[in-house]
């Protein structure tokens, strides 16, 4: 079972923030692309972890 839910929540918030900054900033295109990629990876990784956390928690209750 995934036991680090606060870390996953922090990754989700940081990924969301980096994505918003990348979309709204006017800097070099490679920097925007890099920030966007990092933000999307953090969001996907944290959402997979959160889904696994709640799915395994639900299965352990049964």
Explain how this protein is built:
- The radius of gyration is 15 Å and the shape is rod-shaped.
- The chain has one domain.
- The relative contact order is 0.21.
- By secondary structure, it is mostly helical.
- Helix 1 runs antiparallel to helix 2 (29-61).
- Helix content is 85%, strand content 0%.
Key terms for this structure?
transmembrane; membrane; transmembrane helix; rod-shaped; single chain; mainly alpha; 2 helices
Q: Which spans have pLDDT < 50 for at least 5 consecutive residues?
A: none
Structurally, how many domains make up the residues? 1
Radius of gyration: 15 Å
Portion of residues in helices?
over 70%
Question: What's the SSE pattern?
Answer: HH
Question: Main β-sheet: number of strands, strand sense, barrel status?
Answer: none
SS-based structural class?
mainly alpha
β-strand amount: under 5%
Give the count of helical stretches.
2
Principal-axis shape: rod-shaped
